[in-house]
Amino acid sequence: MSLWNRYRSVGIVYRIGVAFVLGSLVGLVVGEPATALKPVGDLFVRLLKMLIVPIVVFTLLMGVRQLSPSSLGRVGAQVVGLYALTSAFAVAIGLGVSNLVSPGSRGLEELLAGAEAQSAEAPNAVEVVLNIVPTNPVGAMAEGSVLPTIFFVVVFGLGLTLAWEETDDEQVKRGIEAFFDLADAGAEAMYKVVWGAMEFGVLGVFALMANVFGTAGVDAILPFALLIGTMLLAAVVHIGVVYLGTFVVGVAGRSPVAFLSGARDAMVTALSIRSSSGTLPVTMSDADDNLGIEERIYGFTLPLGATINMDGTAMYQGVAAIFAANIVGVNLSLADQFAVVAVAVLASIGTAGVPGSGLIMLTLVLTQLGLPLEIVGLVAGVDPILDRIRTMVNVTGDLAVTTVVATWNDAVDFTADAWNDGVGAALSD
Predict the structure, then answer these.
(1) Which residue, 68, 197, 279, 329, shows the most beta carbons closer than 10 Å to its own?
(2) What confidence score (pLDDT) does residue 93 get?
(3) pLDDT tens digit sequence for 115-146
(4) What are the domain boundaries of the chain?
(5) Three-class SS string for the chain?
(6) Where are the transmembrane segments (predicted)?
(7) What is the pTM of this model?
(8) What's the pLDDT at 104?
């Protein structure tokens, strides 16, 4: 095996993690001269900026295609509604916990000198809502306006899907299918571009961290520890309050502890492999064997959840947005934070299948807020840790929503193992 192949055989997140550590050490040891590497990091940031609009357009169109109106019956509406609601709560909790902890407010005062926020005055809540609808969709894409682009692509995708279902003109149908096929091909091409950008990101993160610690010194260590702690605290709150609260309301008389016991295999697997899709076989096994959910429900809800339910990733956007604002010294208004919720929930539909989706979504959020994209490179080094937390939250949410929807549709066998292990049986008697 060649040296390059050996290098490639190591997961990209681990290589970025090593680059994070080595770049930090170089910055601490060398000091100010290490800031000469900053242009390499800037190039990585520019590559990320280049990807924003194409990623939104192609991947979101494919997400809308999977959510065709014909598939949204009663179960579909319940599932999508709960996934969207829990995602909104996830971002709000991430923002709330981060506002309390302020993870980026200590030790990085000189971190992004010259990379100030790009918008001096935040719009009010009414302006944020109105600005979601673009007057010129092409112009919104050209300007990199994220929310208007997402809104137009979702509406356009649904329009294509409805036109395909309602027309009898075969030529129109073929044209729509060709359009979606083009979007599919474009998405696949963008995955390759993302892969290339992330490969270069190993050098980019090394350079960014060398610049960080060359400028800020040892004072830069604490904020990254606080960032991880903030994300973990937000995840615990979200699982304990939102998921288990939804479970208690939707599955009356059953123990939430029994649910967690039934979902433990999937949760542990998600923490281990950091992939919702990769965990899917284990998640389905837990739903069937442990929780007694019928296949007609989990066979639809769990694959859909692995695609569009990104609660952990959405939560991360809230945490990282406050982290970025703290570093730059900007106080995000309620309107700004509402925009974070909207971007994170909407973008989660389209970017779920993208490698490094959390970092890609973060570029959308930071762009919407006018905050510097250099933050993406800074958090990339600790992303392997954050990603495990995000994935575990995502998978737990998939099973929680699936269990509630299955209960609403009389598709749960409460004689299954998890409900009769002594914990679930106590509450049901």
Answers:
(1) 279
(2) 92
(3) 444 433 434 456 656 777 889 999 988 887 77
(4) 8-419
(5) CCHHHHHHHCCHHHHHHHHHHHHHHHHHHHCHHHHHHHHHHHHHHHHHHHHHHHHHHHHHHHHHHHCCHHHCCHHHHHHHHHHHHHHHHHHHHHHHHHHHHCCCCCCCCCCCCCCCCCCCCCCCHHHHHHHCCCCCHHHHHHHCCHHHHHHHHHHHHHHHHHHHHHCCCHHHHHHHHHHHHHHHHHHHHHHHHHHHHHHHHHHHHHHHHHHHHHHHHHHHHHHHHHHHHHHHHHHHHHHHHHHHHHHHHHCCCCCHHHHHHHHHHHHHHHHHHCCHHHHHHHHHHHHHHHCCECHHHHHHHHHHHHHHCCHHHHHHHHHHHHHHHHHHCCCCCHHHHHHHHHHHHHHHHHHCCCCCHHHHHHHHHHHHHCCCCHHHHHHHCCHHHHHHHHHHHHHHHHHHHHHHHHHHCCCECCCCHHHHCCCHHHHHC
(6) 12-31, 43-63, 75-97, 146-164, 193-214, 220-244, 319-347, 359-382
(7) 0.67
(8) 67
